[in-house]
Design a protein that fits this description.
Radius of gyration: 22 Å
GO molecular function: glycosyltransferase activity
CATH topology of the largest domain: Rossmann fold
Pfam families: Glycos_transf_1
Number of strands: 14
CATH class of the largest domain: Alpha Beta
Protein name: Glycosyl transferase family 1 domain-containing protein
Helix content: 40-55%
Structural class: alpha/beta
Strand content: 15-25%
Domain Glycosyl transferase family: 226-358
């Protein structure tokens, strides 16, 4: 099979989009298939504009960024037409679209039939953020964007059910959040692991205020028993967070601000060390609009560090409280704080839970678990 993936997310290093698609691209390439990533955005990584990393080929279809809005748009359109040239030149069987704009979907739908390739898309959220609030007629218009596609890959059971209901003959494949099982290889252990670490995004659905509130209560429980509390590390771009000022004020008024460390956005290659060298990892999301299981939680588990998580989205479909994680109800900051305190005082048991989480991660969220079925899906779509 010869597969091409088209995305705006940089390769081989980027955001969670890159993590998702590079995981299965690498696995497919390692299995002997031709795989090439076409990036529609400028090359900002300082690497060659085209080449091969491990077994995956790649090509950047824009060389540098232009600050003029109209020029940038024109260059973007040219990049899309360049991708058509590469699709034909590389004799692809399947083109996988990992894009979000309606115009992108229409563009590739129009030209794929002329190029005689199968067209598949990977959907990790509803196509529009407010999809569930739309009227039936408005939803029907959104659903139509997938007409003409041969297959859809989804990340959650909720999205799988949705795409199955509007399939019109399209094949739908459920590929849960997957991780690179080698992500933590080579990470060195630190003597100081006295941290509770939280990774958050700028989409404001990680419940950072609940994480801080829970930590403050945990800190108080430690103080009442003369136990030195772990520090709280926050990893993420807080300056782009919509509730930035509220969070900073909450930290300032917490009374424990000296123990709350805002590390900011960290390079993707640095994050494994920060996670591994923690005593506990925390996520307190309240909801995931399209169900699902966040990528960061998969990395949390893969680290082998005990995890405290709220039962948001489909998390409780995969994790079990007291077996491979410590689960709490959404927004229940008192229960969360007690779980943090329990882990602090039961390190041996917590370590066993962390190891169980690791075992779950390398099986349930390992791309190799799904590779055979994914390959069949792509070849048959």
């Amino acid at each position: 099979m010869r597969l091409g993936l088209i995305s705006t997310a940089t390769f081989p290093v980027g955001d969670v989009t890159t993590i998702r698609y590079s995981t299965y691209c690498n696995a497919l390439a390692d299995a002997g298939h031709f795989v090439k990533v076409y990036v529609l955005t400028p090359n900002t990584l300082g690497i060659n504009h085209s080449g091969k990393i491990k077994n995956v080929h790649y090509s950047y279809l824009q060389r540098q960024r232009n600050n003029n809005r109209f020029v940038r748009y024109a260059i973007g359109v040219i990049a899309m037409f360049r991708s058509l040239y590469h699709i034909k030149k590389d004799h692809l069987d399947v083109v996988l679209i990992y894009l979000t704009r309606r115009t992108d979907f229409i563009f590739y739908k129009l030209f794929s039939s002329l190029l005689d390739v199968k067209l598949v898309t990977d959907q990790t959220e509803y196509f529009v953020k407010n999809y569930l609030d739309l009227s039936e007629s408005e939803r029907h218009k959104v659903d139509g964007v997938f007409d003409g596609y041969d297959g859809v890959i989804t990340i959650s059971k909720e999205l799988y059910d949705y795409h199955t209901s509007i399939a019109k003959g399209r094949k739908v494949f459920l590929l849960p959040m997957t991780i690179d099982p080698h992500r933590f290889e080579g990470v060195q252990e630190s003597a100081d692991k006295g941290y509770i670490t939280v990774v958050f995004g700028v989409h404001n659905r990680d419940g950072l205020n609940i994480s801080i509130k829970s930590y403050c209560k945990y800190h108080k429980l430690c103080g009442e028993r003369n136990i030195k509390p772990w520090k709280l590390r926050l990893i993420g771009n807080i300056d782009r967070l919509p509730v930035r000022d509220d969070i900073l004020e909450q930290i300032k008024e917490s009374g424990v601000s000296e123990d709350i460390l805002i590390l900011g956005k960290q390079p993707i290659e640095v994050v494994p060390s920060l996670l591994y060298n923690s005593s506990c990892l925390l996520t307190t999301a309240s909801t995931y609009i399209s169900g699902g299981f966040p990528t960061k939680l998969g990395e949390y588990l893969l680290s082998g560090v005990p995890v405290v998580a709220t039962k948001a989205g489909e998390i409780s479909n995969f994790l079990e409280d007291g077996i491979n994680s410590y689960l709490c109800e959404v927004d229940n900051w008192e229960d969360i704080s007690e779980k943090l305190f329990y882990i602090h005082n039961h390190s041996f048991e917590a370590a066993k839970i962390g190891k169980s989480g690791y075992q779950l991660a390398i099986t349930k969220f390992n791309i190799l678990t799904y590779l055979k079925d994914l390959t069949f899906f792509l070849s048959q779509s």
